[in-house]
């Protein structure tokens, strides 16, 4: 199913539904109860954008979106469902295909590490990340200003920790210049910082910092690269997850030029488990989110929120989500019923669709769909069977991931952290007493890191030992074709064999 300048979303009694690329930066919403088809819908949309040359960023919360990187496997149990759906909606050109994927991981385990500096993150988001109260946030602000005035760079958490110790040691002098700096408050912030570090937040701060251009790549066949953030482990720290994605949005907003209206977006950003962004966020932050979402569309970025319950999205933000795909909702509890009523209200009515009753009856992979039309108004709501993805449903094998990673167009740029001269090192050469303390904290942390790394290495070795070697051969066969296709135009088969040889050869 093809139409110039639009993505095929699905089809129903109202005919095929098309998402216009020139309205795709007017944002969107994918909502529905658990198991109703949100992730599969997202997967199909991501494929569509990629095929249209639009880069995509998405967070893979359950690991099941990584399958985008591989074609659907005809002998897999889910395949029949996909082909049945394709037939039902008259998608005659349905065939397995992968999307070009780049894997990312805040922790650097399942993809390229993503880093930013403490300064870039800024005090507002950091305060949220550490769960600071207003007084603490005020002192954190002072630490940032003092670092700036002292000409000290805040790159990683060591820098911030050293700077905070410096603030405590010079509390009186700093209070006179910037306002009250209580030592106890500094101590409380430092403890939160340690907790953040213990959650793995430390690896996110430092250099080389992410270049946004790496999220906006197009491959040699003109397909938009799909950046897949491994978020399964990240979801254990919901606040880190939400703050990170918000930081990313604001980076995009700050770095990208105005483009006004264009024929297609520069990037589409899918925000899964979107309710986490808003859960107990302070008012100042909510305002910032609302503002970024409102303004970022003129930079050519479309933001799609994915959530179980549409009422989790604040009204000011929800009002800006023009393209809507609402999967089934349950109507058990009063809160559910409220969600059903709210969802029904937001659609442009269609006399032939009773939204409130349809919404609880929709099948899996079926949704109420309303998309922005050429004049910018929403289309009347239609019951729609969503198109099946052409890529695999479900996760990748570690070896498949390893192969895709080894082919990443980003290369090795981000692989190693670089620690250049910054606040921690500067205070150290000054011989500040602060630094003795910071050095002690660092040594403690390193010992802890070494212990965790040791444990992980042992566990990994154990898993490897238990692996059935013939399974490995099967996997090699399975991934072989997909990878060869990915590199077909660029790389000779010999190199493919070389890559597979080095990954699988020495065992
Ligand atoms: N468009 C579709 N075509 C065919 N099958 C589908 C479609 N959408 C969903 N399914 C089937 O329904 C299953 C559940 O869908 P999915 O994982 O997308 O649900 P979900 O809403 O993301 O659930 P959760 O909230 O638990 O993450 C899929 O594994 C697939 O088998
Ligand atoms: Mg899902």
From TrEMBL:
SUPFAM superfamilies attached to this UniProt entry: P-loop containing nucleoside triphosphate hydrolases
Residue ranges constituting the AAA+ ATPase domain according to the UniProt record: 24-335
Region listing for Disordered, in residue ranges: 452-475
SMART domains per record: AAA
Top-level taxon: Bacteria
Pfam families noted in UniProt: HerA_C
Biased composition (Basic and acidic residues): 452-467
Entries under PANTHER family matching the protein: SLR6007 PROTEIN, UNCHARACTERIZED PROTEIN YJGR-RELATED
Protein name as it appears in the record: DUF853 family protein
Organism: Allosphingosinicella flava
Organismal lineage: Bacteria, Pseudomonadati, Pseudomonadota, Alphaproteobacteria, Sphingomonadales
């Amino acid at each position: 199913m093809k139409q110039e300048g639009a993505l095929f979303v699905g089809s129903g009694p109202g005919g095929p539904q098309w998402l216009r690329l020139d309205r795709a930066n007017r944002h969107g919403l994918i909502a529905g109860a658990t198991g109703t088809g949100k992730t599969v819908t997202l997967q199909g949309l991501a494929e569509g954008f990629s095929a249209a040359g639009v880069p995509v960023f998405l967070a893979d919360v359950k690991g099941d979106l990584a399958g985008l990187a591989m074609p659907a496997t005809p002998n897999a149990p889910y395949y029949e469902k996909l082909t049945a759906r394709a037939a039902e909606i008259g998608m005659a050109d349905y065939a397995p295909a992968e999307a070009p994927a780049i894997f990312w991981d805040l922790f650097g385990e399942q993809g390229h590490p993503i880093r930013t500096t403490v300064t870039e993150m800024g005090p507002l988001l950091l305060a949220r990340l550490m769960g600071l109260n207003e007084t603490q946030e005020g002192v954190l602000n002072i630490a940032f200003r003092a670092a700036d005035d002292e000409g000290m760079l805040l790159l990683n958490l060591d820098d911030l920790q050293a700077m905070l110790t410096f603030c405590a040691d010079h509390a009186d002098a700093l209070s006179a210049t910037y306002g009250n700096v209580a030592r106890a408050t500094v101590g409380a912030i430092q403890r939160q910082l340690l907790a953040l570090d213990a959650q793995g937040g430390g690896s996110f701060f430092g250099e080389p910092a992410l270049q946004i251009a790496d999220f906006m790549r197009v491959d040699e066949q003109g397909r938009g690269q799909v950046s897949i953030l491994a978020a399964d482990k990240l979801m254990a720290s919901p606040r880190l997850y939400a703050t990170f994605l918000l930081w990313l949005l604001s980076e995009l907003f700050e770095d990208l030029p105005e483009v006004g209206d264009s024929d297609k977006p520069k990037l589409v950003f899918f925000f899964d488990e979107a309710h986490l962004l808003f859960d107990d966020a302070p008012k100042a932050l909510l305002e910032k989110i609302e503002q970024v979402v409102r303004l970022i569309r003129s930079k050519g970025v479309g933001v799609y929120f994915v959530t179980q319950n549409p009422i989790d999205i604040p009204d000011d933000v929800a009002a800006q989500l023009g393209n809507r795909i609402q999967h089934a909702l349950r109507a058990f509890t009063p809160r559910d019923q409220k969600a059903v009523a709210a969802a029904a209200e937001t659609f442009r009515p269609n006399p032939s669709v009773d939204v409130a009753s349809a919404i609880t009856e929709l099948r899996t992979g079926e949704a109420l769909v309303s998309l922005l039309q050429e004049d910018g108004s929403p289309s009347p709501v239609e019951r729609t069977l969503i198109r099946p993805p052409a890529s695999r449903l479900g996760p990748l094998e570690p070896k498949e991931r390893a192969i895709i990673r080894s082919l990443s167009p980003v290369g090795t740029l981000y692989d190693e952290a670089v620690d250049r001269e910054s606040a921690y090192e500067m205070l150290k050469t000054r011989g500040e007493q602060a630094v003795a303390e910071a050095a002690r904290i660092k040594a403690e942390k390193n010992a802890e890191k070494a212990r965790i790394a040791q444990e992980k290495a042992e566990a990994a070795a154990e898993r490897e030992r238990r692996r059935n070697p013939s399974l490995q051969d099967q996997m090699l066969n399975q991934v072989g074709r997909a990878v060869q296709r990915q590199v077909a135009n660029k790389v000779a088969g010999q190199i493919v064999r070389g890559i597979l040889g080095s990954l699988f050869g020495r065992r």
